[in-house]
């Protein structure tokens, strides 16, 4: 929604980014009056945009909370089947076995799924065929007439007879569809069509047959309500099914853990989550990532829930509430997507939202009734995650607002240069900031106290746009600032929220080659383009004709990791840029301390000085996240009073 309008508090598209192919929408209907009215209402109202962000973060935090509840629920429910064959086995032993499996599951995450991914499909196919086969056996063995339950009119008779108890049972029935809320994680590995075929032709029929067989068994064994799945197994297949069930829970848990890593990575890129380390576990599939800090926090949380609750039914109550909340939030947000992004009729949007939303609201009401029986857990987890995400985003927005309000114009800086006695030293300096025009306050503070900087100065801004990916040939936006002889440039490096960040050395190589290309293009036009920004595509291999060289012949400039695409002679200015690079490249960024203003209200001081300050002190620094070498780093200490 932020990609197509100004609905969110997230940074909206810069005018220079509008030509990106990622922003060009697919053919769509004309803007309707309804979509325009909704957009204008939300864009003009700060309160509505704030509520919308909180609503989105609520659903996001519930998905992250699923990363705690899904592995716990899956493993505990599978391991508890041991007590069917060994009734004398103490509950502590099943808890211990569950904890061992969970520790092993999270300990293997750093290896990535590509090493064992080939086992996932056979395990799940075996599991689905196994439960469907047992379902058919139980149906034939105990009550073939249960097939009539496929008729929808039994829904009416069920609620007519059960009354309030029928409504209350919906809080448990919702567990039949849990896992579907994490289906978005599959889109990184499979197509839409393959997922539809798999769920419609394989997963859904197998689950229906399995539940039908269990119902047939219970119709003759009403005392076996607890652990009915394992009790309904024929004697000879118990242990094989138990092993397959345990392996299937590990695979299912892996899916939601991967989904949690994925959504936290995207939240981090969009400024809604503290800086954490992203490890790419596969050289071929970008979506396979591992986040160490999140992995160990999830493991500790799973162990705490397993040891604290012990009972699978209480964990199930918590799990169901989290899942149905995610689904309801998604359905409500789809109303805005249908009307403002797809630009369909509001009646179509209402039909979709009312149809799915009413059903989900019914399940949600039954799940909320079980808050005191474990349902409070996802609310607590999501509240903590929501507070972290919103406070981090709020602090980041305030920090960027301060930088925009206190930036210094370049003309002013150059005008006071003679009085400061500025000295230009050899080399190139990349100045990291969030300011896309003007001079960041951090650099002005540095120059005022230490009047010297490098002969080539590049103000570098890394931006994450509201698109999944930015093509490599559209990533760098480069322009000159100041007079041609000042050696000052500005570069905006644009990423999508699914793009991986370039390491500092690779970024340095590609950036300087693109600046050299920019100078070549500028020289070809025969004029300076002060203030204009140009998109520089994939760089060429540059053959440098050294002016006044000893042998007079051209020299190839080698840059590791950049493929040769073409050859061209460097201009005088581009040659000087490469010479300065040989003198050394430094990196400069602010080491900021963000504090609330003394006159700020108490809640703002608590958010900025307390929560945001704590998160900044305990998250990875920008230099570490970007992989900048400490020996080349210059950090400028500043205090931002927001």
UniProtKB/TrEMBL annotation:
NCBIfam families, alphabetized: kup
UniProt superkingdom: Eukaryota
Keywords noted in UniProt: Ion transport, Membrane, Potassium, Potassium transport, Transmembrane, Transmembrane helix, Transport
Gene Ontology CC entries for this record: membrane
GO function term, MF aspect, one: potassium ion transmembrane transporter activity
Protein name per its UniProtKB record: Potassium transporter
Entry's family note: Belongs to the HAK/KUP transporter (TC 2.A.72.3) family.
Protein function: Potassium transporter.
Record-annotated K+ potassium transporter C-terminal domain positions: 426-641
Topology term for the membrane: Multi-pass membrane protein
């Amino acid at each position: 929604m932020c990609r197509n309008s100004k609905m969110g508090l997230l940074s909206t598209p810069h005018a220079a980014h509008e030509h990106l192919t990622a922003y060009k929408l697919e053919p769509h209907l004309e803007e309707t009056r309804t979509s325009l009215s909704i957009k204008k209402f939300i864009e003009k109202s700060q309160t509505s945009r704030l509520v919308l962000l909180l609503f989105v973060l609520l659903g996001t935090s519930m998905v992250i909370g699923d990363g705690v509840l899904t592995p716990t629920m899956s493993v505990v429910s599978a391991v508890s089947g041991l007590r069917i064959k060994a009734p004398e086995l103490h509950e502590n032993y099943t808890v211990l076995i569950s904890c061992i499996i969970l520790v092993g599951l999270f300990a293997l995450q750093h290896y990535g799924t590509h090493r064992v991914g080939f086992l996932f499909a056979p395990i799940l196919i075996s599991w689905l065929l196994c439960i469907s086969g047992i379902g058919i056996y139980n149906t034939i063995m105990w009550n073939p007439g249960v097939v009539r339950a496929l008729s929808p009119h039994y829904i009416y008779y069920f609620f007519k007879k059960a009354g309030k108890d029928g409504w209350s049972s919906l809080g448990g029935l919702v567990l039949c569809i849990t896992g579907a809320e994490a289906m978005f994680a599959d889109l990184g590995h499979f197509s839409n069509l393959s997922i539809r075929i798999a769920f419609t032709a394989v997963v859904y029929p197998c689950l229906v047959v399995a539940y039908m067989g269990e119902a047939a068994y219970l119709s003759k064994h009403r005392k076996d309500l607890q652990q009915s799945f394992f009790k309904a197994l024929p004697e000879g297949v118990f242990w094989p099914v138990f092993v397959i069930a345990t392996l299937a829970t590990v695979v299912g848990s892996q899916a939601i853990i991967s989904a949690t890593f994925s959504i936290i990575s995207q939240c981090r890129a969009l400024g809604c989550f503290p800086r954490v380390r992203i490890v790419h576990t596969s050289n071929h599939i970008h979506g396979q990532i591992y986040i160490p800090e999140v992995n160990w926090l999830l493991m500790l949380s799973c162990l705490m829930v397993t040891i604290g609750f012990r009972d699978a039914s209480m964990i199930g109550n918590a799990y169901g509430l989290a899942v149905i909340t995610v689904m309801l939030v998604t359905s409500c947000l789809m109303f805005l997507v249908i009307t403002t992004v797809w630009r369909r009729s509001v009646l179509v949007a209402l039909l979709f939202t009312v149809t799915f939303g009413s059903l989900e609201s019914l399940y949600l009401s039954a799940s909320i009734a079980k808050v005191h029986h474990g349902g409070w857990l996802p609310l607590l987890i999501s509240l903590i995650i929501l507070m972290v995400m919103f406070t981090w985003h709020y602090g980041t927005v305030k920090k960027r607002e301060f930088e925009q309000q206190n930036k210094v114009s370049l003309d002013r800086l150059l005008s006071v240069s003679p009085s400061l006695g500025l000295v230009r030293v050899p080399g190139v300096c990349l100045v990291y900031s969030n300011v896309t025009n003007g001079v960041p306050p951090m650099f002005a503070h540095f120059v005022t106290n230490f009047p010297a900087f490098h002969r080539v100065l590049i103000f570098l801004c890394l931006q994450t746009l509201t698109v999944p990916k930015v093509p490599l040939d559209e990533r760098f936006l480069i322009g000159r600032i100041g007079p041609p002889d000042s050696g000052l440039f500005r570069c905006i490096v644009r990423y999508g929220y699914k793009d991986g960040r370039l390491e500092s050395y690779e970024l340095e190589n590609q950036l300087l080659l693109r600046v050299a290309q920019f100078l070549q293009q500028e020289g070809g036009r025969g004029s300076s383009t002060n203030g204009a920004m140009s998109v520089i595509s994939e760089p060429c291999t540059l053959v440098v004709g050294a002016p006044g060289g000893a042998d007079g012949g051209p020299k190839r400039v080698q840059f590791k990791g950049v493929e040769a695409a073409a050859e061209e002679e460097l201009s005088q200015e581009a040659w000087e840029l490469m010479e300065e690079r040989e003198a050394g490249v430094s990196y400069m960024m602010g080491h900021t301390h963000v504090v609330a203003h003394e006159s700020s209200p108490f809640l703002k001081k608590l958010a900025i000085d307390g929560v945001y300050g704590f998160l900044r002190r305990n998250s990875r620094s920008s230099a570490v996240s970007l992989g900048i070498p400490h020996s080349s780093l210059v950090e400028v200490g500043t205090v931002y009073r927001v």
